[in-house]
Amino acid sequence: MEPHEEPEMLESLVEDERLEQPETSETPGAYWYVIHTYSGYENKVKANLEKRAESMHMGDKIFRVLVPVEEELEIKDGKKKITKKKVFPGYVLVEMLMSDDSWYMVRNTPGVTGFVSSGTKPVPLQPEEVRKVLRQMGFEEPRAKVAFQIGQPLRVRSGPFAGFIGSVEEVKADKGKVKVKVSMFGRDTPLEVDFGQVEEI
Question: Are 178 and 171 in contact (CB under 8 A)?
Answer without folding.
Answer: yes
